């Protein structure tokens, strides 16, 4: 065999295995469809509307955890679960029933308890993956396994397709595309869902403790804004107009501050028509918050508290989280602050300031092989900073004080010309959150929008447009404010160490 033919042979073997698996699945599907038909013909519901359930599998496990090996009770329960293991031994059948949280209990279906007809029906109709209801006494088996000695049972939901092999790991493609299977077979998938729920509750609790109000703002917008990003475009038949899926809720939340809601936040879905990788998804969750009479320093303190409280909620109180490789990551303490221009100058070996000519920045970028699209001073500075520093920030770090031209919604620094009061928070080398001292001067904001519109006319797809409605709101006076935004999916990444497709329950895939 030559080297040229080996890959083709391997690929053929993989294709053959996939085809065989598909054929086996198809055959099993037909067998189960036939069982469903026979159930219905015999007057038995394959998908009954209700069952006499009295408790849950987790509750039974908690209440009877004390039973000794072989100990029996006269306590009768009715529980339901999915069959994930089954074994028939003539006059006695065993099955493991799994609840939604992964808890399991053994069902023992014996000839002595249910009789010939019921036992025969079990053997004929019940398959792995079925949901079944069982009724009977709680006992501990001779092997010490908590069990239900079944005296009655019923199909709760007939599975037409078989479960994957529970002894093999699901590949990533299956986990993402068929998350329901991932949740059935993998405890880590269920833990991630619970972790996300804990994070959401923690975020709301922290905001509430600081007297923030939660609001909802439009997902469909006539004008996209609030971030530098490429939007998804759609069309409204009712209004016969072009609409955009929001890239950020910022401009509407600021309207709320203008209206007197001094502390406001939203946990929302955003959509950006850009790349997808291990830390980016076209559809993602964010939290944004604005505080009247605050600034970016106060937002840094708030964001640190939000992240640390979320970590405690997931870990049960610790600020040291365990990553998938077994290593620990410490989110505790006061987080470092790093100036963008100073750290770039140090890392590059060139003094770079807001006054550095564009030609010098371009020369440095060319020498480092850094490509910058739609080049401005600020874009060169940020791309160069990412090149020299972005991957180096492992510990939680606030990168402070950004260029003006890349931050059109941000207040000019109080003491440093050419710099705005903005930070980005980096955790384990990726950006987690950002915050500003907000630009509230409507005259300056209009000038910034016009500059952005010029960039857009020059072909920059991420540049903002002039938003007259937002400017009208600002002209009614917005108080000095601080604002922050943080990716919820990325917050899960920071706490769990997972990629973004694992932290989103049903991610968009091609």
TrEMBL record:
Q: Does the keyword Signal apply?
A: no
Q: Which reactions appear under catalytic activity for this entry? A: tRNA(Lys) + L-lysine + ATP = L-lysyl-tRNA(Lys) + AMP + diphosphate
Print the keywords alphabetically. Aminoacyl-tRNA synthetase, ATP-binding, Cytoplasm, Ligase, Magnesium, Metal-binding, Nucleotide-binding, Protein biosynthesis
Task: Kindly state what the record says about how the cofactor is bound.
Answer: Binds 3 Mg(2+) ions per subunit.
Q: Which residues form the Aminoacyl-transfer RNA synthetases class-II family profile domain?
A: 196-507
Q: Which GO terms describe its molecular function?
A: lysine-tRNA ligase activity
- The top EC class is ligase
* Names of the cofactor(s): Mg(2+)
Q: Bias regions of kind Low complexity — which residues? A: 1-22
Q: Which InterPro entries match?
A: Aa-tRNA-synt_II, aa-tRNA-synth_II, aa-tRNA-synth_II/BPL/LPL, Lys-tRNA-ligase_II, Lys-tRNA-ligase_II_N, Lys-tRNA-synth_II_C, NA-bd_OB-fold, NA-bd_OB_tRNA
Q: What is its EC number?
A: 6.1.1.6
Q: Where is this region: Disordered?
A: 1-27
Which residues hold Mg(2+) 2? 431
Which PROSITE patterns would you find in this protein's record?
Answer: AA_TRNA_LIGASE_II (PS50862)
Q: Where does Mg(2+) 1 bind?
A: 424, 431
Q: According to its UniProt record, where is this protein located?
A: Cytoplasm
Query: What main location does UniProt list?
Result: cytoplasm
One Pfam annotation reads tRNA_anti-codon
Q: Identify the SUPFAM superfamilies for this entry.
A: Class II aaRS and biotin synthetases, Nucleic acid-binding proteins
- Tell me which family the UniProt entry assigns to this protein: Belongs to the class-II aminoacyl-tRNA synthetase family.
Q: Could you give the subunit structure recorded for this chain?
A: Homodimer.
Q: What is the protein name for this chain?
A: Lysine--tRNA ligase
Query: Gene symbol?
Result: lysS
């Amino acid at each position: 065999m030559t080297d040229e033919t080996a890959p083709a042979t391997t690929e053929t073997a993989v294709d053959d295995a996939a085809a065989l698996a598909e054929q086996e699945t198809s055959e099993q599907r037909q067998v189960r469809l036939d069982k469903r038909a026979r159930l219905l013909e015999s007057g038995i519901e394959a998908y009954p509307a209700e069952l006499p359930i009295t408790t849950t599998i987790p509750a039974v496990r908690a209440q009877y955890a004390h039973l000794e090996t072989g100990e029996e009770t006269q306590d009768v329960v009715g529980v339901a679960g999915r069959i994930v293991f089954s074994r028939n031994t003539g006059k006695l059948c065993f099955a493991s029933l799994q609840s939604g949280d992964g808890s399991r209990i053994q069902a023992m279906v014996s000839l002595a308890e249910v009789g010939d007809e019921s036992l025969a029906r079990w053997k004929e109709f019940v398959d792995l993956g079925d949901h079944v209801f069982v009724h009977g006494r709680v006992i501990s088996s001779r092997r010490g396994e908590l069990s239900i000695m079944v005296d009655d049972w019923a199909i709760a939901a007939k599975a037409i397709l078989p479960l994957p092999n529970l002894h093999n790991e699901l590949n990533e493609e299956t986990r993402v595309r068929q998350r329901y299977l991932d949740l059935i077979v993998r405890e880590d998938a269920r833990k991630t869902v619970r972790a996300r729920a804990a994070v959401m509750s923690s975020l709301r609790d922290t905001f509430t403790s600081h007297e923030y109000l939660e609001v909802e703002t439009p997902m469909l917008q006539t004008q996209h804004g609030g971030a530098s990003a490429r939007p998804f475009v759609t069309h409204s038949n009712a209004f016969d107009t072009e609409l955009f899926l929001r890239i950020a809720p910022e401009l509407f939340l600021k309207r709320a501050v203008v209206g007197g809601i001094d502390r406001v936040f939203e946990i929302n879905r955003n959509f950006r028509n850009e790349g997808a990788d291990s830390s980016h998804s076209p559809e993602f969750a964010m939290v944004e918050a604005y505080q009247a009479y605050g600034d970016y320093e106060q937002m840094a303190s708030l964001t640190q508290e939000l992240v640390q409280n979320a970590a405690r909620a997931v870990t049960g109180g610790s600020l040291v989280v365990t990553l998938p490789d077994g290593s620990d990551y410490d989110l505790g303490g006061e987080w470092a602050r790093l100036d963008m221009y100073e750290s770039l100058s140090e890392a590059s070996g060139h003094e770079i300031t807001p006054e550095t000519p564009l030609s010098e920045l371009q020369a440095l970028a060319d020498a480092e092989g850094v490509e910058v699209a739609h080049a401005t001073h600020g874009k060169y500075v940020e791309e160069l900073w990412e090149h020299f520093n972005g991957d180096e920030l492992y510990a939680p770090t606030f990168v402070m004080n950004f260029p003006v031209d890349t931050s059109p919604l941000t207040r000019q620094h109080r003491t440093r010309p050419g710099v705005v009061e903005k930070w980005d928070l980096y955790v384990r080398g990726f950006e987690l959150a950002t915050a500003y001292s907000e630009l509230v001067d409507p005259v300056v904001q209009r000038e910034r929008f016009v500059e952005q519109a010029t960039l857009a006319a020059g072909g920059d797809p991420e540049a903002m447009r002039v938003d007259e409605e937002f400017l009208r709101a600002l002209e009614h006076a917005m108080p000095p404010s601080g604002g922050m935004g943080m990716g919820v999916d990325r917050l899960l990444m920071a706490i769990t160490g997972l990629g973004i497709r694992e932290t989103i329950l049903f991610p968009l895939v091609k």
